[in-house]
Specification:
The protein contains eleven helices and 33 strands. By secondary structure, the chain is α+β, with helices and mostly antiparallel strands. A hairpin with a 7-residue loop joins β3 and β4. It is globular and about 85 Å long. Strands 11-10-9-23-24-25-26 form a seven-stranded mixed sheet, covered by helices on one side. The chain has three domains: 448 residues, Purple Acid Phosphatase, chain A, domain 2; 82 residues, Immunoglobulin-like (Sandwich), CATH 2.60.40; 83 residues, Macroglobulin (MG2) domain (Immunoglobulin-like, Sandwich).
């Protein structure tokens, strides 16, 4: 085979790395709308009137042996701010007749009408079904599962996902995961939402079909809430939450791109305010809208045990203690032993968890690529970038924190801790790799890099400390979508093969520890865990259109005590026991409307307000709408909108700074009906 030209590789890699580093828009894709209510769009993401007032579905998460968190969100009939009483129940059957626990909760404005119940007193290793009731209606029925506790499970299965950009494609992979009947949980490694404005980052062909609200970049609590609300109307996302418990951590886009403890690449304090305020708003919205167990410190690092087989150790490599990313791979500060991606408190906690674990498998669920990614070779025969300039594009991953990575590897090896498995998202590509202390010995001769051997043996896996499985994105743009299929294929081919130069001479293999790489496809992997092995089965789905297609591509596994990967010839088999799925529709109550409303007001943020107030609503059919502001006596103050809108989900923003304090009424007329929402302008 003729080796690919390095000039082609460098042009691809540098462009992709720049996009990946910013995780932002290609300028040619940018499309901002002066008024997000005025352009036509065929938006399939609208509320389902048969599911009201639980339009956003149900979810569960953070299972333990005796408890699990169940979640829903109530859309109140009135937006005046009154609390809504919600009842819940947990049963052992899909019809919710064999009830084991039940109770009451309150949905109110303090948590955006979301409801989370940490249901205790359950049996270990058991499948349960749950539902909510409010305002005379039932929610969808959800299915969840507790951990096996002190039992020794012989087979565990998890879906592992990350990076679900709403405007980059359809969440088909979520739909395929929802159909699986033997998962213990879905592990979400972050980038559950994206913070960018509407029409900026994703697939331009889908900007009108999959718009996000609000249309602006999200900064405030109201805006983060609105973005989560928009995501949670996607049917595939609703279904995967309905059928499986989630175990989730955030990455950067739940706040802002390339975030760290004290800031982010995509945050400007001069124009967007203090970082601490934005981070606090993002954290609060995350804990409201995700089925994660509440934590007084709003920390996401934690451990979930699955009997004697698995300790799932979740990390936060973003907001907890990360130092700011560097942009120069030759900067001596890069190798400072005190430079941290975890922060000292979390790092000490992690080492304690690894030391104390008696589980067969110690699995680290975290955000960014842990193992080495050597890419400087792509600068060969191209004067546009030097070796280390190319390397500098990839310092948001653990390559930007090499001393701390080395400390963790040393700790694992020095303490003879076997069976450590790293789960990773973020990079919009699929990888399976060994993690040795040092993958290659890099030297230079007359400007050429040579990748020599170390004590790691890529043929046998000897001296690998752990293994790592990287999940592809659900939809977020991959290498090919950013710079083209040809360039992506060339780089994928060269990524972990020896580099040949003129005369057939070899510079060595820059990444002998990377056993599998796919830079093009979208989907997830199934993590299959047994006492004697752990295996990742990679599945891919199209994203450009709604689709039920899925294909298995590769599988890699590690055996107990070996700490390195082997290729599997086929995906691992199903579990012996398959769950009964939760029903597709809510239980009937006999109170459904003969003609459901075409409008659902999903939120009013904030109310009371002092400056800007946002009306977030969904329209299931194209209708003429009139929205106007009235004073307390019903006199017109301002017409806010009068036009025919296509079906879709929208946000309407009112700048109330000039209004005098007091009571106002937002009047909405649609489909021959009038709705009035009290608004309070605070002093």
């Amino acid at each position: 085979m003729t080796p690919p030209k390095h000039s082609l590789i460098i042009s691809a890699l540098v462009l992709y790395a720049g996009i990946l580093s910013a995780q932002g828009p290609d300028p040619v894709q940018t499309r901002l709308y002066e008024n997000h209510r005025l352009f036509d769009r065929g938006n399939p993401v609208v509320f389902n009137p048969e599911w009201g007032p639980f339009f956003h579905g149900v979810a569960s998460g953070d299972p333990l042996e005796d408890r699990v968190v169940i979640w829903t969100r109530v859309t109140p009939e009135s937006s005046a701010g009154e609390p809504v009483e919600v009842s819940w129940k947990v049963a052992t059957d899909p019809l919710l007749q064999e009830v084991v626990l039940s109770g009451e909760a309150l949905a109110d404005t303090s948590k955006d009408y979301t409801v989370k119940v940490d249901v205790a007193g359950l049996s270990a290793g058991t499948t349960y079904y749950y539902g909510f009731y409010a305002l005379g209606k039932n929610s969808l029925t959800g299915k969840t599962k507790t951990t096996p506790g002190g039992n020794n499970p012989n087979h565990l299965k998890f879906g592992v996902v990350s990076c679900s950009n709403f405007q980059a494609g359809f969440f088909n992979a979520y739909g395929r995961l929802a159909e699986r009947k033997d998962l213990d949980a879905v592990i979400h490694l972050g980038d559950y939402i994206y913070e960018y404005p509407n029409g900026v980052y994703g697939n331009p062909d889908l900007f009108e079909e999959r718009p996000v609200e609000p249309e602006t970049e999200i900064l405030s609590l109201a805006e983060y809430r609105t973005r989560y609300s928009t995501y949670h109307l996607d049917t595939n996302l609703i279904r995967v939450h309905q059928q499986h418990p989630f175990i989730a951590v955030w990455d950067d886009h739940e706040t802002a791109n390339n975030s760290y403890a004290d800031g982010a690449q995509n945050h400007d304090t001069l124009t967007e305010g203090p970082w601490a305020d934005r981070k606090a708003a993002a954290k609060k919205a995350y804990f409201e809208w995700m089925p994660i167990r509440d934590d007084a410190e709003e920390q996401v690092y934690r451990t979930i045990q699955y009997g004697e087989v698995l300790d799932l150790i979740l990390l936060d490599t973003r907001l907890e203690g990360r130092n700011k990313q560097l942009d120069d791979a030759t900067d001596p500060a890069l190798f400072d032993p005190n430079r941290t991606i975890l922060g000292p408190e979390q790092k000490a906690w992690l080492l304690g968890q690894l030391s104390a674990s008696t589980a067969k498998w110690k699995v680290l669920g975290q955000q960014v690529l842990f193992g080495e990614l050597n890419v400087g070779w792509a600068a060969l025969q191209d004067s546009s970038a030097t070796y280390y300039e190319v390397e500098s594009f990839f310092l948001d991953i653990w390559d930007g924190y090499p001393a701390e990575r080395q400390q963790l590897i040393d700790f694992v090896q020095d303490n003879q801790i076997d069976n450590v498995v790293v789960l990773t998202g973020d990079i919009h590509s699929a990888f399976a790799l060994d993690v040795p202390k040092q993958a290659v010995n890099l030297t230079f001769d007359q400007g050429l890099p040579y990748y020599g051997p170390t004590d790691y043996n890529p043929a046998t896996g000897a001296n690998s400390a752990m293994v790592e499985f990287v999940t592809p994105s659900i939809t977020s743009p991959n290498f090919d979508e950013n710079i083209g299929l040809l360039q992506a294929s060339v780089f994928q081919l060269q990524l972990n093969n020896p580099i040949l130069i003129s005369g057939g001479n070899s510079l060595g293999n820059p990444n002998p520890h990377i056993k599998y790489a796919d830079l093009i496809q979208h989907g997830y992997y199934i993590l299959d865990i047994k006492p004697d092995s752990v295996q990742a089965n990679y599945y891919y789905s199209p994203i450009a259109t709604p689709s039920e297609q899925e294909q298995f591509q590769k599988a890699w596994y590690a055996l107990d005590g070996e700490n390195h990967l082997r290729a599997a010839g086929a995906p691992s088999g199903p579990k012996a026991v398959q769950d009964i799925p939760a029903p597709s529709d809510p239980p009937l109550t006999g109170t459904r409307e003969e003609k459901p409303s075409v409008l659902a007001v999903l939120g009013v943020y904030p109310n009371p307000f002092s400056g800007q107030v946002t009306l977030h609503y969904s329209l299931r059919e194209s209708e003429d709408m009139l929205i106007r502001l009235l004073d307390a006596n019903g006199r017109a103050v301002q017409d806010l909108m009068q036009e025919k809108l296509p079906a879709g989900t929208y946000s309407l923003e009112l700048d109330g700074k000039s209004l005098i304090p007091g009571l106002y009424l937002c009047e909405i007329r649609v489909d021959g009906k009038t709705m009035t929402i009290p608004l309070i302008k605070a002093d």
